[in-house]
Design a protein that fits this description.
heterodimer, A: about 350 residues, B: about 70% helix
Chain lengths: ~350, ~280
């Protein structure tokens, strides 16, 4: 059962009834080792003589569980770095789970066909390449070619090399190819934000169609309006944990509220830290001055211990610095005293 | 748990078994063929001569080797048709070199693709080897032309080039998958691969006949005759220049290497299937 799971054809929408389970994520953990970006070199392996290197881990997804049903369009919201993309990659089977598991009815498709397209070739040629990458057969692609071209809506540019396309045109073509596959489970990771209003509407419409065909769509976005418009469920992810799961209106409201609270807290923190910093600076300055005065006094033959005691008495450490008015008395002995007239005010 | 009775959900990211993996590769065969085709089409647009370079490149190498080893070093002693001998060696060896080099880059050079689209990862090393095989077919036209021009008569043994290079293709597929995983794990491999291959090729006799050199050391002959890269060149030369077919034993060794390399490469590559493109 397990071995047939890896690459079932994604090309058809099976006749799953509405409301059937399509994806089940169970206690999913995804950990990256920080050194994963830097593969061990021969040198480092020799240097550590085969000992296991200690590496710090990034725990990107910390025990996420949810079940998605057919007919759901699920908006994934959360701050940058909250684990949205990692979660979606894991759901698409592109990242292995460190712990827990992802079960799916058919292989979920991440809208990312752009990576396979060849910029030197025409849009039309890339439709074939992209379609094949997504698991369509050649005949199926040729059948749908006209629809794809029409949906992309980039006119004659379809026969020009893709390197001449704007990012919006590329996004259109990419979405058109992916949508033509009619995947049962589609994951759209911030791919729609580059398009213009016309394209956004078209994309919304297509997402609606996929939903109506008993598919499941995941939509990762920072646009709260887009979540409320397209989704019928929302997941709020923060720091690798699901903070809220429910109706888009509620989840978006909770997310917004938290964000505002956060901002307020940050502001208060900032003010607070400004105050303490100022205080610390003042204390440091006073400490310096005391040291200088003691040094000045002992230079004039006064016993350092006595001098220290005198300075301590005049400007006690734990008292309010406002009490240090008696400056002028010692101004002669301590030249440094000249540069702190403002402290009293 | 609603309506799981329709079709049970399946676990994603489970390590596929060999047979089902092969089946999934077969299901994506059109994709595997389209990658090199698109790549070739794109390359053609970059250079004036386009695909002709696939033939010109090894041809120029033949020229360089001829100047060095035919004129200066004179390693052609005892070889009747040195130009033909050299051409076959260079073209046949070139196929393995390029396969291994492109295979090494096939995974680490496609991180974006691996992070975005799900497909059996072995498609990548396989497709680059297929692309090199296509280049070999072009090159073979040049090889036959050279052999004809240097005065060889075509015979039925010429047809044996087809099975010999198909068995080499199998070996190269395995080699490419092996290097692809190694290079994904140790980037340093990329630097080492070209030199290793060069040594291997020189040891296998791209421009001299190792059997002739080793005639005084009988134990070496066995080693040489077990070296697949030597066999591909040696047997192609015998078929084209001496009109002699490989012996049954030699066929056995060739087939063994092809199948063993292919399966070993696939199994080795498969073990990390879900980890490619992560780092």
């Amino acid at each position: 059962m397990v071995d047939t799971a890896s690459y079932p054809p994604t090309s058809t929408v099976p006749g799953a009834p509405r409301g059937a389970e399509t994806v089940r994520v169970a206690h999913l953990h995804v950990r990256y080792s920080v050194y994963a970006d830097v593969k061990p070199t021969l040198r480092s392996l020799i240097a550590t003589a085969g000992r296991r290197r200690r590496f710090s881990e990034v725990h990107a997804i910390k025990g996420v569980s949810f079940t998605a049903y057919s007919g759901e369009v699920i908006g994934i919201i959360g701050a940058n770095g909250s684990g949205k993309s990692t979660l979606m990659r894991a759901v698409a089977g592109l990242l292995p789970a460190s712990d827990g598991a992802v079960y799916a009815h058919s292989t979920p498709m991440l809208l990312g066909v752009g990576a396979v397209l060849n910029k030197m070739l025409s849009g039309r040629r890339n439709i074939v390449l992209g379609g094949l990458a997504l698991g369509l057969r050649r005949e199926e692609i040729l059948e749908r070619e006209n629809d794809i071209v029409e949906f992309a809506g980039i006119g004659d540019a379809i026969d020009r090399p893709m390197k001449t396309y704007s990012s919006g045109m590329q996004a259109r073509l990419q979405f058109a190819i992916s949508a033509a596959v009619e995947p049962e489970i589609l994951i759209i990771d911030e791919a729609l934000s580059v398009g213009d209003a016309d394209f956004q509407n078209k994309a919304s419409e297509r997402i609606g169609q996929l939903r109506d065909k008993a598919g499941t769509v995941f939509l990762v976005t920072h646009g709260m309006a887009s979540v409320r418009k397209n989704c019928n469920r929302a997941l709020w992810l923060e720091d690798g944990v699901i903070k809220a799961d429910g109706a888009p209106v509620d989840v978006v409201a909770a997310y917004r509220g938290a964000k505002e609270r956060d901002q307020r807290a940050k502001q208060i923190d900032k003010q607070r830290s400004k105050k303490t910093k100022r205080r610390q600076r003042r204390m440091r300055r006073w400490e310096k001055r005391r040291a200088k005065m003691i040094a000045g006094l002992s230079e004039r033959g006064i016993d350092p211990e006595v001098a220290r005691q005198a300075v301590e008495d005049l400007w006690p450490r734990n008292r309010n610095p406002e009490r240090s008015e008696a400056d002028d008395e010692h101004a002669v002995e301590a030249p440094a005293a000249q540069d702190h007239p403002q402290t009293s005010g | 748990m609603a309506a799981t009775d329709v079709t049970p959900l399946t676990l994603l990211g489970a390590k596929p078994r060999l047979i089902s993996y092969l089946r999934s590769i077969w299901a994506r065969r059109e994709f595997a063929l389209e990658i090199p085709r698109a790549e070739l089409a794109a390359q053609h647009r970059n250079t004036v001569l386009g695909g002709v370079w696939h033939v010109l490149n090894p041809l120029m190498l033949v020229g360089v080797y001829y100047v060095i080893f035919g004129i200066f070093v004179r390693s052609d002693r005892g070889i009747d048709n040195f130009v033909g001998f050299l051409a076959i060696g260079v073209f046949v060896f070139h196929f393995t070199t390029k396969s291994a080099q492109a295979g090494a880059r096939s995974i680490i050079g496609n991180e974006g693709l691996l992070r975005a689209v799900a497909f059996p990862r072995a498609i990548l090393p396989i497709s680059v080897v297929l692309s090199e095989f296509a280049a070999l077919l072009y090159a073979m036209a040049a090889m036959f032309a050279i052999v004809l021009m240097t005065g060889e008569e075509p015979g039925w043994t010429w047809l044996l080039i087809a099975p010999i290079s198909l068995l080499q293709l199998l070996f190269n597929l395995g080699l490419a998958m092996l290097v692809a995983r190694l290079a994904d794990h140790f980037r340093d491999i990329l630097q080492v691969v070209p030199y290793t291959l060069r040594i291997w090729g020189y040891a296998s006799g791209v421009f001299y006949d190792p059997l002739q050199r080793a005639s005084e050391y009988p134990f070496l002959i066995g080693v040489i005759k077990a070296n697949p890269v030597f066999l591909y060149m040696h047997l192609s030369r015998r078929a084209l220049l001496d009109d002699a077919p490989p012996t049954l034993h030699e066929w056995g060794v060739l087939t063994g290497w092809g199948i063993a390399a292919c399966i070993a490469g696939l199994v080795f590559f498969l073990a990390k299937e879900h980890h490619y493109g992560r780092g």
